[in-house]
Amino acid sequence: MSDTESEGEQKPLPTQKKQNEDNDDSDDSDDDDAKVVTFASLGICKELCAACDAMKWPAASPIQIQSIPHALNGKDVIGLAQTGSGKTGAFALPVLQDLLHEPRAFHTLVLSPTRELASQIAEQFECLGKDIGVKCAVLVGGMDMTSQSLQIGKRPHVLVGTPGRVVDHLENTKGFSLRQLKVLILDEADRLLNLDFEEEIDTILKVIPRERRTQLFSATMTSKVNKLQRACLRDPVKVEVASKYSTVKSLKQNYLFVPAKHKECYACYLLNELSASTIMMFTRTCEQTRKLALVARNLGFSAIPIHGQMSQPKRQGALNKFKGGERNILVATDVASRGLDIPSVDVVINFDVPMNSKDYVHRVGRTARAGRSGLAITLVTQYDVELYQKIERLIEKRLEKYPVEEEQCLVMLERVNEAQRIAASQMRDADAKKGGGFKRIRNDDVGEDDLSAIIGRKKYAFGDEKKGMKKTKQSGGGAKGYKGRGR
Prior knowledge:
It comes from Bathycoccus prasinos. The protein is of the alpha/beta class and about 475 residues long.
């Protein structure tokens, strides 16, 4: 897109949208319809082009092609693109170019709905900006506020955080102000507004300048985003390179209809069949995540859980082990469904059908990223049929049945039932040692056996349900952590 086009009126944008919809059939090809577009041709400076090359971004993605010229010209932008399409680069590069020409503290605030996504965004800012001296600070809940205050005291150029913790610092950190803010970015904007973040976002909007640049990015749009557009965007440019709730064509999507009483057995069968793959399995609750990870580990699978009741160091430790290849199965709640870029993920299994159909789009978006192929399988019980049909209506696609022989699955039934009994005993024992109820273990060391550290002191051998088995070392105690607004 030329600079002339980027400075023009917004009326031509529906044409842009139509062209991109026409090109949807070539999503998995870099140059079916058009030449490769370089970052330099979009107006990005040579220093940042070199940083893009270092990150192995050889060419701009469609969302970057359409949004970067508008952002460089000071326009407010609303960007809608599929997961894994390069939205972080689309808002980070114009910010970094601004900072290269005019460095200033607290230039940009990026808000995200989850702590892990905030950390990932900060990492990308630091990788792209390391050669131009950009400083970045992460403000998220679950971490020590004092150390974050020290980071703020160093006057970073870019702040990335969750809304609750940002408000906590605005109210409690002496000398911290956003009155000089130039750019506000909301990543996964629809999720920010669907959670209880509206009050915090309103607080932030009241203390930042009206004369600023605002950008919203998401893979799914809701009416609440339109409300925010009316509240804080000025003459925005809307860039859509995907239909409202589309998934990429390189993703193979299947369903598997299973009886509810044998659901765990079918899930473990899939883990066994796909054991050579890197798998993310999504559940609905923290307790189910905890239990499934234990069952998988008792059956010999290399699984690790991540959910909202784990302390932040534990969550980050689990994520790092999965990213680093030490564990090939991540059992997670929707805390891991948004924005996380883990290129090695081959398969997504929806153990529980999401209550909100839009969460399905984000869950399956953890695989088949940046043109890669991927597989998504959703387990559907007799109680989930209505939720499943809502998903098919939302994505406007009929899913194919995943080929499985019932007899083959049920061969594992006895072993899976035994693993579930052991897992239940492990959970009861861990809860009893903590005084009843599942409480977060507050320590920074994930330990040799991360799952043992999370569930309790005892390590149970598969096939032996008796208590008093071989003990493992438990790291750390259970001091209560900060319970602020940070998500």
